[in-house]
Amino acid sequence: MGRTRPGERGPAGPGPAAPPAPPPRRARVLALLGALLAAAAAAAAARAFARYSEAQAAARQDSALKTLGTEGLFLFSSLDADRDMYISPEEFKPIAEKLTGSTPTASYEEEELPPDPSEETLTIEARFQPLLPESMTKSKDGFLGVSRLALSGLRNWTTAALPSAVFAARHFRPFLPPRGHVELGEPWWIIPSELSVFTGYLSNNRFYPPPPKGKEVIIHRLLSMFHPRPFVKTRFAPQGAVACLTAISDFYYTVMFRIHAEFQLSEPPDFPFWFSPGQFTGHVILSKDATHVRDFRLFVPNHRSLNVDMEWLYGASEGSNMEVDIGYIPQMELEALGPSVPSVILDEDGNLIDSRLPSGEPLQFVFEEIQWQQELSWEEAARRLEVAMYPFKKVTYLPFTEAFEQAKAKNKLVHSILLWGALDDQSC
User: What global pTM score does this model have?
Assistant: First the structure.
């Protein structure tokens, strides 16, 4: 073997592999073109499938229209919640219950819990005076095509569906403030609004409310005392329920709330008739663990001359066949007859005590006086809930004459708004 001299290189060893030669430009262009063609073909296939699906849906709707007629298709569509042109057993359930006269099975979460004989209960009474027909400004019989049939659901609603009902104190747990909301007047949502001025509104063509879930359950049960078909969420924004604390003690809260809900007064084959009070407001005084309710009241404010919006269809088209009016309802109120009390009374040894005295009179409970440490006025709490529902109310709105005085003092212009109803509730 020869030696390598200084300055000379030895035999070349195995070096790093040479990088592969780049594909020809034509091959790269063809590959890119192929990918684009494949994507275009997939998009075209998707569009074709969508057109096919739309055509099938249109064909089914056309067939249904020929079979059922306009009014029949309208009724069918009111039950077809997912708009797939098929009525599922769940969608048909309200009609089946109507035809068979069966009572809808309860799906309320709190009713699934076994009753606790030691828990406290309270009785709530409904007070209801029907809407005054003379307060409806344009919907007199024979005017604008309004008929007695169109208003039959309203005319027949003269009493509360359930004059009184017993609730467990724990049913009011959803009114407790969430963690972190223990400041007076700080609003929180019991039922958040799912709509805004940008998301439109829900369909008018519905008869039966969806099953309530979670915190909706107690509000649905309370409103069902007025009428069997309450919609906990309104068709228009702002929906839901908002609350805030107005008083705090060592063991109790006073919670003020505002609820936007409405009722469907008609059932098939009549057309839908929507009854939308301006708002439900009220308060509940309850212990911090929701085992005791000291007081409860819910009502539609009646201090304004108009406090209910009504909208109803008189044909199969939602847009062109709808009438609207506003009216006044004198009383729509729920109130607890007294604080919650134990269902059974036990002595110190756990033995059952007779709830009646030897004279036959029921035992009288003595409740301690609540010492409130912090309190907020009803007016200020109502204003804060109003702003939560309607953020534009952050601006101060003044009566007509006061506005001019303020404008003159501040050298500003006046922005005047004239309405048929109220801008800050659901009656307008």
Answer: 0.72
